[in-house]
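Thread: Modeling a multi-component assembly for a lab meeting

Hi all, long-time lurker, first post. My supervisor asked me to bring a structural picture of a complex we are working on to next week's group meeting, and I have zero experience with this. I have the sequence lines for every component (644 residues in total). Could someone generate the structure of the whole assembly? Inputs are pasted exactly as I received them:
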Amino acid sequence: MALFTRAPKPEPILGQNRAVAFFLAVLTWIIGLLFFFPLFWLVLNGFKEEAVASSSPTLIFDPTLDRFREVTETTNLLTFAEAFWNSFWIVLISTFIVMTLAIPAAYSLAIRPMRKWRDVLFFFISTKFLPIVGIIMPVWIIARDLNLLGTRTVLVILYTAMNLPLAVWMLRSFFAEVPKELVEASQIDGCSLLGQIRQVILPIVAPGLAATALLCVIFAWNEFFFALQLNNVGASTIPVWVNSQQKFQGQFLAGLSAASVLATLPVVLAGWVAQKRMIRGLALGAIK
Amino acid sequence: MAEVQYKDASRIYPGTDEPAVNKLNIDIPDGELLVLVGPSGSGKSTALRMLAGLETVNQGAVYIGGTDVTLKPPQDRDIAMVFQNYALYPSMTVGENMGFALKQAKVPKDERAKRVQEAARILDLEEYLDRKPKNLSGGQRQRVAMGRAIVRQPQVFLMDEPLSNLDAKLRVQTRTELSDLQARLGVTTVYVTHDQVEAMTMGDRVAVLNFGVLQQVDAPKTLYSKPANKFVAGFIGSPAMNLFDAESIDGRPAIGGVAAPISDSVAGQLGRVDGAAIGVRPEHLKLASSGIQGEVTVIEELGSESFVHVAIQHMGERTTIVVRDEGETETTRGQNVHVDFDGPIHVFDADGERVD
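Re: Modeling a multi-component assembly
Sure thing. I ran the full set together rather than chain by chain. Output:
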C-alpha cells in the first residue's frame, strides 16, 4: 500500500512551458516592432534628402540635418519658433486651468459626494458626445463676435473645455481610492479643507495627477481641428505648423517627416518624465 | 481632560427610517475608559463618530467637558481618534504623522519635536521616527496611531476597534499596554469593539448596544452578574449563558422538567411564566446525581476547566445545555447524566427585562 504518494506535478500555466514562452516572446516583439516601425521610418525619413525619401525605401543613405534646418527656418505664415511657443503656452495654461478646476471638482465628487453626483458626472462626460465638427460653426461665430479669432486665448479656452471632463473623471477615480479614514483623521487633526487637500490627499494621488496632466498635455498639444479652424495664422500651434510643411509642388516627404519628429519630441519627453513619477507612485501603491 | 455626555443623541441616516443610534444617554466621568460593544450594525461605531463630529447628530446633543459640541466640526472638539486601519498619512514619516496635529495647531517646532519625542519614548517608537508607515509592521503602525493621539494631549481619546487588525497574540499584549497607558494618562476614552472579551478586560464600564439602542451600561462585573435583559445576558460571557424559554412547573419557571430554585420574591414579581426566559451560566450548573436528565454530546477540555454539552428534552424539543466541569472531567461522550443548578439564576420577563 502506498502510504506516501508524490504530490502531483502542478500543471504548467501558460507561459511556464518553455516553447510557449519563446513563442509569446517572439509574438510580443513582432507586435512591438509593428507598432514602432512607422515611427522609426518617420524619424529615418527626417534625415534623408527629399529625393531619397521619395524614391524606393532604403535603409542605407547619407544622413543629413538639412531637413530639420529647412523646416525650422522657413518663414511661411508661421515659423517653428512661433508655433512652438504658441503651443507651449497654450498647452501649459490650459492644462493648469484644467487641473485647478478639476481637483476641487473631483474632491467633491469623490470625497463629499452631493446628491445625484452620478448625474453630475454623467453630465461632464456628455459634453464629449457631440462631434466637434458639429459645433464648429457656432463656436466660430462666438469666437468671431468676441474678437477671439486668431488668438491664443480662444485655444486656451477650447482646450480647457475639451480636457476638463476627462480630467474630472480621471481624478475622481483616483480620489475615490483615498481611504475615507485619512480624510477624517486629517479633519480631527485640525486640517483646513485646503490643508487637507494639499497635505494629505494630493501626495497620495500624485501619480494620478501626473497621469491626468500628461493626458491633458498630449491632447492639447496634438489638437489640430480647432487650431486650424479658428486660428490658422501667426498665433497657431505646432500641428498647424506641421501641416503647413505640405507643399503643393515639389517633394516634401522628408521635410514633413522632420517637422513631425520635432512636433512629437516634446510629448515624448513629457511622457518620459511623467512616466517615472507614475511608475514610482504605482509601485508605492501603498495607501495602507 | 473632560467628562463626556450623550443626551438623547440620535443618528438617522438619510433614506432610512430606523435610527442607527436611538436616543443614546451615557454619562462618562473624567478619566474613565468606556467601552461601546455590540454586534455589527449595533450603532457602536456610529455613536463614536457622533462624538468625533464625523457623523451628524440628528436629535439630542453631545457634550465634551460640559460644552455642547453637537454642531462643532471635529477639529474644534479637542479629541484624538485611533482608527481601525490606523489611517496613517502614507506620505509622511512616523514623526511627521505624530506631529501633524500640532503643526496644524501652529505649535512651535521645538515644542512639537519635544512632544513627539516624548510620545515616541512612551510607545517605544524612537528608532522609527524617520520611517514611512509602509515600512512598519502592523503592531508598530498601531503604536504610531496611538502616538498620534497621545501627542495632542486631547480631552478625549476615541478608539474605533484599534486592535482588530493585529494577530491574536499581539492583540492580547497590546490590550494590556493600552489599558495601562490610558490609566496612566488619565484621559477620558471611548473605545469601540465587537469583541466582548476586549470590552470586559479593558472597560471601566461597558455600554452594550443593539440595533442602535443602549441595552445596559455598567461595570464589567455587573454586566456579567446582573445582565439587564436577555440580549446582554446572551451577548456577554464566553461560552454564552444557557438561555431558554421557561416552561412552567407549578407556576415556577423550569428547564427540562426541573423547576429552577428562584426566590419567592422573584417568582412573585415575574407572575406569569408564559413568555418568560430563564438563564444560567455554565459555571452555575453542575453534573449531579439528580436534576435535568440528558446525554453528553460534546466535551470541550480546556485544561483548567472543561465544558460539557448535554442534550436535554426541554418543552418537547431536543436542545443543548452547557455545563462547566473540572479540567479533568470523568464524563465521557454518550454518557447519561443529570444537570443540577448550582448558583445564581437569571429570570427575564416576557419583554426580555431582568426580574430581580
